[in-house]
Here is the input.
Amino acid sequence: MEVIEQVGTIRQTVQALRCSGKTIGFVPTMGALHEGHLQLLRASAQENDITICSIFVNPTQFNNPDDYKLYPRTMEEDIALLKTVGCNYLFAPNAGEVYREQTLLQFSFGVLETVMEGEHRPGHFNGVATIVGKLFNLVQPHKAYFGQKDLQQVAIVRQLVNGLSFNLELVCYPTVRETDGLAMSSRNKRLNEEQRQIATHLYKALQQAKAELKQKPVASIKQSIAEYLQSINQVALEYFEIADPDTLQPVEDVSKYKQVALCIAAFVGEVRLIDNIIVNLNEV
Ligand code: AMP
Here is the structure.
């Protein structure tokens, strides 16, 4: 596997690969890799001639400076893991290389970004769209791989790809979980042992909400989830939402839907975690 840090080098490499007819699969990440990332990389390696992973902790998508500063960075381990899953190139630029000039671009995603992550993390999706757009232009993938773990991000990237006619296919894979249900996340590395145990309550809350979907109106489900998490020490719920899985808009009457997304964001200690499950209503 070749590690590339320069924008000029990734451009040349990709151009040569494309000229020789190779298909390129791309997995953008912020590193501190875990099985959730590796699932995407394995899929890419299977479906494309060449797999490119990027590791870049993108400063413009962090609305909280401490979250950026404390984001886990484990480059040595990441490189070792990438070599085990058939990754051909790692693009790992520094921030100065990616943002040579200040970017003044502003994206607007309408109602997609007025809810949940967009509402609670001002500027977050503008930063996501900026970096994903840049990376798509640099890497020019045929297929790009994302995780359902960041459900709203997938919707935003889909809008970006359609809106700007990027010539690539978006692929979304399900959330990979620890055996106790906790969604794998790089931020889990910041949890101490006690918090790591406590963090499973986010998934338990989603399961509780799923069980209540056909029994209670949306408002009571939201209230019971808020009460449940209030009772857990060190957990501060930011939002729990029942949403349309495509538009991410809040659902008021579940009976009108075939599927809904149950989405949650909460702090466990200082660490902000998100999770979601998509529920088929004929299965509950
Ligand atoms: P990140 O490094 O957290 O920005 O994630 C990079 C990509 O991996 C994104 O498309 C995420 O949605 C995806 N991802 C992160 N965690 C998981 C997980 N537990 N299961 C599946 N995909 C994930």
Notes: The mean pLDDT is 97. Strands lie at 2-4, 24-29, 50-55, 89-91, 143-147, 169-173, 235-243, 259-268, 271-280. The chain has two domains: 2-173, 186-283.
